[in-house]
Amino acid sequence: SNRGQGEPEEFNDKPDSLFFNDGVRRIDFILVYEDEDKKDFEKRRREYFEASLMKMGIELEATRSVVDEKLMFVKVHMPWEVLCTYAEVLHIKLPIQPNDLSSRPSPWRFFSCITKHFYPNEELITKESEFFTAPFEKDRLEYFYIKDKDLFFTPSMRSRMAYYILSRAPYEIRGHIKKFGITKLLDGGVYKAAYPLHDCRFNVRSTEEDCPNERFVLYEEWAHPKSFYKMQPLDLIRKYYGEKIGIYFAWLGFYTKMLALAAVVGLGCFIYGYKTQETSTWSKEVCDPEIGGKIVMCPQCDRFCKYWRLNSTCEASKVSGKLCIFDNFGTLVFAVFMSIWVTLFLEFWKRYQAELEYEWDTVEFLEQEEPPRPEYEAKCIYERKNPITGVKEYVPFTTCGRCVRVSIGIGTVLFWILLILASIVAITVYRLAVFFVFSTKLRTQEIKELEPFKEYVTPQMATSVTASLISFVVIMILNILYERVAIWITDFELPRTKSEYENSLTLKMFLFQFVNYYSSCFYIAFAKGKAVGYPKEPVYLLGKYRNEECDPGGCLIELTTQLSIIMGGKAIWNNIQEVLIPWVKNLIFRYCTRVPSQKVIPRWEQDYQLQPLPKLGLFYEYLEMVIQFGFVTLFVASFPLAPVLALVNNLFEIRVDAWKITTQFRRVVPEKAQDIGAWQPILQGIAILAVATNAMIIAFTSDMIPRLVYYWSFSVYPYGNHPNNTMEGYINSSLSIFNTSDFSDFSKPEQSNSSLIISTCRYRDFRFPPGHPRQYEYNGYYWHVIAAKVAFIIVVEHIVYFLKFVLSYVIPDVPYSVKEQIKREKYLTQVILHETNLKAGDQTSETN
To answer: Could you state, in order of their start, the residue ranges of all structural domains in the chain?
Structure first.
């Protein structure tokens, strides 16, 4: 019987029961509210809403909480007729016939004795039968493969249909204005929660009949730390949580497997650099007392900075070499490899995604009419003629109104992006100001705390580390602020469907995050040290701060520092947010709602004590991984170990996400999804940009091209007399000479107490020496290096882009076997659901 307005039903003391008290009707959804007499308007809305649900055929049953007497739990049941109606409305695809196409044997079947240990336990997770499916039509019920009506619609399908009804049931009507939807009632506090039920406890197998114990199996074979080495049971994840969450974990698992290959090559590049670092002529010459010890470098700031010996950076140079080991031929090979890797990753993912689309019945999901969002429907007040169907329909705004809303949204996003750029300028000014402090005090040993590390800490390194930490803090603060702004803008634009809403929000958030996370890295890679002038005429920022120079070894160590701090800090912060916060919240909630041990807590109340999954929970998981993907691909030439760190992080990320969603959160409402949505073109854009950024890092940030030009030169320069095809004398040729008498009065360093008179100093550039007819102008070596850099970028980019194009063309997006199955399914659908009706019509006419 339906609930009505009488007394609530008593709990039947079955803690894992998934049914009404009669033990027959399955619970498809739970609504929770506080039973208070003070708020009459909430009670009226609730009663009207529940009456609307019952008019739509839904059955309800209320039960009072065993923990808090004020709490009421309303159990929602979808009868067979209602299920059939809304399965047709939502175009849910259901079985019509077992799959009669023979599957091709796996090429890895010969290694099954080894690989079986890396797959979930087949006794717990049995392989399900494959069926050809078709969109459900209740008028053709006899053509669908129905063995048991109670099992025909899976629990996730039932929950999805229940939520669709709850989102559209009215709770108040005033004149022509109709207010509807469980979302509004939750926001207004009329209901405290609405969720589908987990089927059992995650760590205890249910003893109830008809309970599949899927949550327990997922925890044992997927979320438990002991299963970290096993493949994910994607079909069970999809069945339990829906296609949207299933496709996320499928993508994350595929990305992690592909990272394993990149990590192996990156580790090989790192080992190659580590083994060859001792043979580095540049490092030896810097540390040689007879070479680096006799080279006096020009001050790097005005007046208060001192002259310094090149070998004072020797220890720091060794440390930087051991940390990053990038500037060698292996890095170039690895950068090209990663450009090809990212193409293979995207192409193979398209194939894998096509297989999942077919297996999970989402091939034609986007072609079907996706229902509008309740928030959109609630504001449809303008009448218009549909340009396709010609039928009158209602929309929330006119064409002009939509343009205004979109324009306001674009303007707001641009304003916040400019705000980020302003913060980058501020951090740059901080760099210049603090570099001056470190340059004057670090070398005069005035910072006593750093005295034990004075051999290892250079002004550049100290400035880079502190600036990177400040940059990370600014990034996190701006993220929190912009998140709310982006959601507000997207709500204001009022997209029609949920897919449109998520795609719009995705684009806004990624544009912001791209600028927020990567702008400091782009500054170090392509701006720092590129416009510094020379000691006589240095370049100033804002007319006050002298632009900072790179270390004699280049800016790549600073780029690596920035990347490692942001990547590491982001991973730690995300894990704290994802794991610790919901765990602590659940712990506090359980502590505050303690009950005597003899009391039995029902399934719906156990789930209420868990945290609700945030509305945009999955969105942030994608965003985290895509930002990581950008770090791995855009700047990999500066940090070959980035894929290794990403691989380790992702191995934890999969299990942390699985543990969190299985144990700490209520069961989410299952949703359909055909693919990863707007993230796919974003990944493709990053892949294209990565080729250019890595080529430019090697050309302009690394010291590789100048060294190669020096190595292959034939002593044609007056400053370049060296044995052919060797690197001896390179450090001397890469530093220009400056006459200290040419300093301007403003930049001339103050006289030190030392009796040593310094007549010339060296600086990092390729210019003619003093006394030359073209003194301090760029020399021929400089122009040869520039030409070599430009040629390198053009050649590498064209080769890699050509390989990417060939691979994209050669690798088909949809496997041939999947195409066959899709055609077979369409043919069967046409024969079974349409031609059968024609035959029945012919028989009827013959009888007449």
So the answer is: 1-92+136-197, 236-705
